[in-house]
Amino acid sequence: MNLFLKLPIDSLHLVKNLIGQLMLLTVFAGFSYAVPANSYNRAADVVVSGTVTSSEGESLPGVSVTIKGTNLGSATGVDGKYTLRVPTASEGGTLVFTYLGFITQEVPVNGRSVINVTLKEDVRALEEVVVIGYGTQKKGNITGPVATFNADNLDERPVARVDQAMVGQMAGVTVKQTTGTPGKGMSVQVRGTGSISAGNEPLYVIDGFPLSPARPDVNGNYATGNPLDNMNPNDIESIQVLKDASSAAIYGSRASNGVVLITTKRGKTGKPKITLNSYAGTVERSKKLDMLSGEQWIERATEMINAQWAASGAGRTASQSTVDRRQILNSTLAADKQLGPNDVNTSYMIDDRWAMPGYPGLRIIDWQDEGFRRGLMQNYQLSASGGTDAVNYFVSGNLADQEGMVLGMNYRSYSARANVEVNANSKLKFGLNISPTFSITKDPGVEGKDNILHQMVSMTPVQEDTMGVYVNVGNNGQYRWSTSPNSPISKLEETSAETRRFRTLATVFGEYKIINGLNLRSTLNLDNTDNRFTRYIPYTIQGALAARQSQLTQNTSGSFSSYRRQTFVNENTLSYNKVFNKFHDISVLGGFSYNWDRFDNGEFNSNGGYTNSVITTLNKAAGITGTTTGTENVLLSYYGRVQYAFKSKYMFSGSVRRDGSSRFGQNSKWGLFPSASFGWRVKEEKFMEKVPVISDLKLRGSWGKAGNYNVGDYSSISTLANYNYTFNGVQVIGQAPNRVVNPDVSWEVSNTFNAGVDFGLISNRITGSFDVYRKDNSNLLLNIPVPQTTGFTTLLGNTGEVRNKGWELELTSRNYTGSFQWTTTANLSHNTNKVLSLPGGQTQILIPSSLDIEHSILKVGEPLYSINVVRQIGILSQTDITAGAAMYGTQSAGDPKYFDANNDGVINANDRVIVGHTTPDYTWGITNSFRYKGFDLSVLVQGQNGGSIYSLFGRSVNRTGTGFLDNVLGTWANRWRSPEDPGDGEVGKTYSTFGRIKNTDWLYSSNYVRVRNITMGYDLGKLIKTKQIQGARLYITAENFFGSDKYDGGFNPESSNTNLSGSNEYPEAGDYGGLPLPKSLILGLNFTF
Amino acid sequence: MKRILFSTIISGSLLISSCEKDLNLTPISDASTETFYAIPNDFIQGVNAIYAGLRTYPDRQLNLSETRSDNLYAVSDGGVRDWEGINSFHKTIASNPYVTEAWSADFNGIFKANTVLDQIKKNGSIITNEALRTRLEAEARFLRALYYFDMVRTFGKVPVIEHAVTATEALNVSRNTVAEVYDFIISDLKFAGDNLPSPEQYAAADKGRATKYAAKGLLALVHMTRSGPTLGVEGPGLGLNEWQDALTLLNEVIGSGKYSFIANSATQPNAYASIFSYTNENNAEVVFDIQYITGASPVLGSTFSWLLAPDTWFQSQGKNIQGGLTIRPVSNDLLNSYQAADKRLAFSIQTGFTFNGSTETRSFFKKYIDITKVPVNRLDWPINYIVMRYTDILMLKAECILNGAAGTQLDVDGIVNQVRTRAGLTSLANVTLSQLMDERRKEFAAEGLRWNDLVRSGEVINKIPAWIQAEDVQKQMQAFVKEYIIYPVPQSQLDVKPGLYTQNAGY
Predict the structure, then answer these.
(1) Same domain, B25 and B168
(2) CB-nearest partner of A736 from B46, B104, B159
(3) Which of residues 773-802 of A touch B (CB under 8 A)?
(4) What is the ipTM for the molecules in this complex?
(5) Do B298 and B362 share a domain, yes or no?
(6) Strands (E) located in A87-186
(7) Are B487 and B99 in contact (CB under 8 A)?
(8) pLDDT tens by residue, A853-890
(9) Based on the domain organization, do B348 and B484 belong to the same domain?
(10) Domain with B356 in it
């Protein structure tokens, strides 16, 4: 509190204003370059003015001019002129001219009133290098589209995962936060999706070590690990994404989905720097699903039960009481089946307490409120870095602890990293990067179909008061009018499900300078993950009451599964860099690598329950079933690249890689992946001098071919499966080949053309780049129909083609550069895809659905996984029916009206039409950051437009004809009740008996806008002036606090946790009960000693 | 410097070349064909896998033979059920899942048989026990013939594959003539009949494997089937006169004394029911059956028992739904053909039931259902499916005689009256072919034989149109044309390589 009291009053005032205007500024607010009003207008001051120009004579707008040692300052206008009142006390002082891309200059005032300054360009900015495949390159010489995410500021906000850090930051790089479970991997896509069955995740390369590209399983989960698991974001220096094949092709058969290059921090020569980063805060749900309240549920259940009763026989009416109904029913039943005075038939009789005020003996439960909570998260990192001429080092340790937004969920990780480099002599350098990590994740099984969240949403909201939330568990039975799941709250509290993951990433490298410019580098890399999952579910929260009480621990279940994933990579490169005759900058690289992946899996389950109610390990299981499996693959590669730049004006780059993989068929072991690109730095041409407003301009063009080698480890080998049989009541083992093999099976191919422009305007006040691309994925790994005389219907082969087209814009604008700085960076990308061809010349493939008929289609000319369903167009009225409206089965008035697409007079599966596609057309992100004196504020807003969700989760909570037991969406409160009370015209009557057909009821727009992050910080360095502390910053962050989406049938439009197709051939990961995004409020502190 | 560079390149290329062999990895956890068929047991397992392919055979007979015939009138679900197109003679059933399944399942079985036969030819010496080797070859050929016989009756002309073919080879194999398919079947069955063991030569644990007499009985039926009239359709009848060949084989089966007709007795007043009893499997009537057990993992039970029974009936019995969906009603024509005293009626057919207050008046087959034996998993019923039973052998013999093979009317009457007596009916004299076929219809109701019987006898051409005329009060059925005797080639197969196969006439 003391700290705040010391703040200058006027700066506090400004901050208040800033916060007020924050929401306005987060959208494109129009770029304004007015000089900020001078608030230091004091009588005794001396006015100093002047012009700031570049060495080429251009006037520079927006140059910050400050008086050294004070907070006073101004900035130049568009004409490069500035005016500054210098207090008399500072007349002998010094003016500091700072401007991005130029060398800061200090000029003593010496009593002058006019001070003109020429700033020199900071050539280092142009010399800035970025990481590319197998090396680095001058930023100015880059010829392909490379998205850079400078992680400098990553430790200025709390980020739990590396993929989370990338959300909304780079054009063309879409990070979908597919889960709300802490510690779980997200989905990253570069320039859309081009593969149907082989995965769309990029290759991750960390400090030159290409990690095994694990893709999500059919459900969208990384059940066998994600390359970014356990990686500590605070250790990261920068992230580069190679988006097109020209830059990525050097990674060959794994690069078709783009390559993410991650560089971790290293020590810099100088005195040791010790940094402490810590933060703590709360995390909770950012959204609640609107379901019927208890009162609304009762109203609907009553209506439905009455309707069922009235429809069940002659002489039965809604007005008859429970007692009447019991009598009527008994009159039709045999003597031994009569209902006793307290017996009910819940299909035909309501609970009389529903009609009483206050529902005596009943409790209304909002299951969502019971299950969600506000969790705590905290993180502590300590790092030390530094270096001498002989050694530099970066060492860090991190502890993260995150409670989930739902009871029983927790994630804790411990990670450490040491990056050490030793210069043995002037020629030899070697080093070691090692990062051991350990994490514990607790997740009782919240997300996904029929899992706990799903039950929390659809569980009957009315229960017996005596049981509280613990219904149908332990010795509690079940409310007669309730669904039968065991209390989701008990499951959250009592299920024990824990993943312990121990992962070590290690790299040893040596570099030998053979002659100046010629370097030999060799690395050995190992990534080892050991993952153990244990689950224990006591009988008390399973099954029906009678079984719980009679069978006891026979119903307890437990399991243990583990996997070990190992990747070993040896890379050897020889590189030569030299500038000839000052102008000819040449780099040549050649190398080969050996890559080995192995995955071992073990799984053990209890069989027949447990013999003990206390011990949770499998030794107390009544029986155990188990299995272990293993799989491995080897990739051999040769690669080379030539880069040439003439005067940094004309650039050319060409690369080629040859990959051989054990995964490929006998006839196609080796693939060749070439690329070429050029760049023309137009700004360097003489004629550009006449266009001073353009401060930088570069044109780029590139082409490249890359692959996707996710064909499965043994796809080309003829394997056998079990086809068991039985003779005389005893099982016998049968084995036979389970597929017809294709000796030609190979990688998927992507061909990318890219054209781009990099530009800088007004002395680079605005910089940006624009790229257009076309990416054709062909030779897709699909099942090709074959004559069944082979024994099989299909053959895994390479066929089919998908095209992605789009453009990307990245912009950075330094709106204010004075003492008040405001920078806006924005990215916007547009991508569309369409199927160009399908296996066997088919024009469409209906993708199976795990529930009901198909709703997804692959159709030539249409986007991948287009949504193909019947269109709902209102509610059927009796007039419609009389007029002969097309109907689905036995529909009647009050049921939904569907569009008869083929105009044949009936509604059926043939009336399905394409109503949307799953991938968004536009994705965008805007970051506004402000700095004023010691304050900084940044706001990240991000969103997407143009895509749709077909939600089977939406279907589960909103179906025509859903019984009254399950709770349904709140929209049912506005349903059709009678012709006189037709509701909102979207939801039909509650008692409908025609069944259901896949229709637009479960189609939602996936558009959203989200204020991902607001971080405000204050540099305590302004207050703490001790020698020991070099820097200190206090910040507060709000994550996911604001936002809106149109997904009323679920929590998160990007969720994926269930395979909607139920097919491995055409996986379709989608939402079936995914958590909302976590909303968190966090206070953090950074210290540098 | 040069030396370093040189040695680096040398050692690098050595490393690479030694690594290249790593590109040929064999699976760690899956057996591959390269390492299998190494010990005799592998071959036995290979043959077991061919039997396993039969597990979908019963459902197929019920869907394609029983449902196609005048035994069922299952038209009333508004076109949403796969069986309606089969039952109602839709022209557009080339994509019907049942039709598609027949082609793919039979060819998969044939592929498994060919795989084993190829391996026996190549590595058969591994099986040092020559008798075992011959038996395995004969079993494989018996099963291959069974699959091909199913195909020729379903589709007429089909490609004859003697060896496992690659995808590329398969693209050049077109359909053989019906006569060629039969030649292939007959040569397999002859080999099987000559080389398979007699039932008692098998160990008890092998009960259920194909026997010498199963092969002979099946071969007899093959001869009879191709002796049926062609009716202007390419298969399965060829109008040959091989009734005597068939009779000889049938007499061998009968003369073997390995099987017997289960007659009523004091302890077993309804012997007919006992043939299908869950507690009387592998009884004296069984010449060849497909075997199932419940409780194995993965599942080795059956589904055919409830296939024709509606889910609501199971619910009315307090059981879980099984998957038969809505009712596939037994036709009035069949119901009315039973005499009141016929014990087979009540056993084979459930006439009506009430569920949830509504009464279903139509009837359905429940021949294979023992309601006390409903398994935990609806796909895991334990009951075996009898492909060929002794009563069938006897009645086929009577059919041969009536078609001119050696024998007397007395022989025929004797066989038919034996069957009728068991059913609780009075005897007939001078049984005609038509009467014989009517008796077969009731005796083998729900056993998947009806359509084949109609085709073999040629009755199909008159009986079906007349039946449609009389039965189809809902006017849901299409007109029957003779081309519908066989099914269309699955559309998916025509699409693989246009021109490789041509669609059967009429579709």
Answers:
(1) yes
(2) B46
(3) 785-793, 795
(4) 0.94
(5) no
(6) 94-98, 105-108, 117-119, 129-132, 135-138, 146-150, 173-176
(7) yes
(8) 889 999 999 999 999 999 999 999 999 999 989 988 77
(9) no
(10) 304-366
